[in-house]
Amino acid sequence: MAPRKVWPIVLGIVIFVVIVGVGFLGTMVYLVTRQVHVETMPTRQGIEEFERVRASLAGQTPFIEIPDEDSDAAPVVHRELETHKPGQLSTVHVRVWVERERKLVRVDLPMWTLRLMGNNPITIGGNDEGFRHIALKVTPEEIERRGPGLIMDHTGRRGERVLIWSE
Questions:
Q1: I want to staple 97 with a disulfide (CB 3.0 to 4.6 A). Which of 83, 150, 161, 164 is the partner?
Q2: In the chain, what is the straight-line distance between the N-terminal and C-terminal CA atoms, in Å?
Q3: Residue ranges of the alpha helices (H) in 71-163?
Q4: Residue 147 region, left (φ>0) first, then alpha (ψ -120 to 50), else beta?
Q5: Per-residue pLDDT tens for 146-161?
Q6: In whole angstroms, what is the distance from residue 139 CA to residue 120 CA?
Q7: Radius of gyration of the chain (CA)
Q8: pTM as predicted
Q9: Contacts of 49 (CB under 8 A, 6+ apart)
């Protein structure tokens, strides 16, 4: 095959890959932004929302326990709770309450979005003012084996709270 005939084919493949990549990225951005809701509300209302959800999960041991920020202890993962078959969860819910800003963040992620990460460990990010950066050795598959229920309930020293559960 002559070199002149190869370049249009290579160029066509490159353009196709770029279009598919941009489309995939745009779709992911759209889906994630549709799942994240940030709302400013009175302190009492934010705390009540947390307490209502937490009451529905009463008596459950969190799958992941994050130590206090002042502690050098490692997070505790209760692997003995991994008793379900993978593939049965539909949604992972996250609620973050930042009391000093009176902001409630609601994230409801379909489980398939976590499966897209592959079976890579999850990282919980933070910043200098809030939660510290924690690299967990917990994969989406292990969360699925945990089954429906409380994944994490953590309160920071400044009153910020994180509540994660699955259905």
A1: 161
A2: 56
A3: 111-115, 140-146
A4: left
A5: 999 999 998 888 878 8
A6: 6
A7: 21
A8: 0.76
A9: 95, 97, 104
